[in-house]
Amino acid sequence: MIRVEEAFVKKLVSNEIISCSEADIYKFGMECFLLKIIHCVSYFIIAACFQMVPELIVIGSILIPLRRNAGGYHARSKTGCYLFSCCYIAILLFLSEAAIRPLFWWGALTIADAVLYFKSPADNENKRLDKAEVEYFRKKTRYLLIGANAACMALTALGFCHIGNLFQCAVCAAAFLLVLHDLQEAAVRFL
Fold first, then answer.
1. Cross-referenced InterPro entries, in alphabetical order (predicted)?
2. The domain containing residue 118 runs over which residues?
3. pLDDT tens-place string over residues 30-70
4. Cα dihedral sign for 151, 153, 154, 159?
5. Is pLDDT above 50 for 1?
6. Same domain, yes or no, for 18 and 96?
7. Which whole-number Å values give the CA distances from 31 to 38, 84, 86, 92, in the listed order?
8. How many domains does the chain have?
9. Which pTM does this prediction carry?
């Protein structure tokens, strides 16, 4: 069976829209795009099953930019990435609704802030960062962190505690992915 991205790229080449030498790049891009769509649709299905689509959107609005700039854990395979990501989203949604004391969330946020502030960005074997990139992503992560913390405090002060808790959950989730990345790196060095 021909995969969707292969068929699409063959059509682009046969219609002389792209050259044969560019086919692999377009195939890779299409594959990444389709995987992102599958991930996002799956996340919304999980959130819909929990009746928590608005919560997913709020958490995602903080987690996605932090994750993109701070880096973190990466699974070793596409299937592993998909399964881990879906389970991680389900756990985050569960935790965001769990009866956790506000003081715990503020404590967790403080620790997460420290992790993100001092440990980001994390590169991986697919994307090694040079010194300029490290500075760029570190600065962006810190600005996002300041914004998320300020918004969290403002929301809580204005009585929107649940939304503030979702922001805290997202920041903690991004920090946990950084810690998991460090554990993964340590395991690789140990073995």
1. AgrB (IPR006741)
2. 50-190
3. 888 888 899 999 999 999 999 999 999 999 999 999 998 88
4. positive
5. no
6. no
7. 11, 19, 19, 27
8. 2
9. 0.84
